[in-house]
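Predict the 3D structure for this chain.
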Amino acid sequence: MTLHLGKGRSRASALVSALLLSLSLALLSFSLVALPAATSPAQAAAPLTVSQAIGQQSGATQTVRGYVVGQPTATSTVVRSGFPSDYALAIADSPSQTSTASMLYVQVPSAFRSQWGLRSNPSLMGTQVDVTGALTAYFSHPGMTRTSAFALAGGSTPTDPPPTGGTGPWDSTYYAPAVGKSGTALRTALHDIIDGNTTLSYDQVWTALKDTDQDPNNPSNVIELYTGRSIAKSNNGGGSGQWNREHVWAQSRGGFTTSAGPGTDLHHLRPEDVTVNSTRGNKDFDNGGSAVSGCADCFTDSDSFEPRDAVKGDVARMLLYMAIRYEGGDGFNDLEMSSTVGSSSSRIGDLETLLAWNSADPVDAFEMRRNDRIHSTWQGNRNPFIDHPEWAAAIWN
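Done. Predicted structure below.
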């Protein structure tokens, strides 16, 4: 009997345990269904595009992603250089956008102006940013006011160390000593890398330019830098309608001659129409002026020259190369960038405008091929700002 009572109690205990287990599982299942899952970063709402934001001027607070394309100063006016203040940004879905109808005007409150205003940070031009605020008119134009947050696309801020390479085809070899550096350390590393190149005679430059600047659609021609015109390689010289050797860093502004050295460095020598070359002369580079005859989309005034949009980045990167390559060694002057136009010898500008041009006009296939040819065939060194345009901001920002 005792044995039977024990067996009964064992079965009862087992039954209670089973019921308790079933109840626990049911409660757990209910809690998993009833409690909302935490939202992960991947589930967060994606930023609006600029075009979406323009169409949603409801006053709602939203985050919008776009490229900085200038500073609005009136309903239909956005300036792209010479920024008068830090009060506003214009952003667009493309870094090359010039139509104000496709831009969102963003108010920059005082707390953000030192980091996000274009007068203080002109190198933001062409940068993709995320901005958060109320979608409502600004300058009587689709815009954002009461802006509460700014970040570079991806979440960082301009005070974070800028990217300094690591994934390019030359980063593990040619640029290895520079990768990961910024500021003065990056500048020194790049100078050491590109210094000591093979130098050419001024006569050799004729032959080299016929290779480096060859028209990709006509191997018998070269492309002129400022005009963009394709002209016969053989039509070179000093006469009207011919092309000659343009020093982008003007000789008189660098204190050098056409002896082997900076005056024959292919990284800043380009074919150009004789007359247009004379018009440019030894002027600085900046925006504005009167139209240049024979050079569509080129402008000039008493102390500056503005090339066509398609080569503004090319011009900037050539000048930045010269400032890094020639730092007072080799018996040549220390070439430096200037933040003003009309500077003295050995300096050229306008630095802020050139940094904006570097951002707004990306490196193209012609520029990359040119860099490769100079490196492999003529001088044995590269222009680092063609391989890594972001290094300009890492040094000069």
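The two ends are 94 Å apart (CA to CA).
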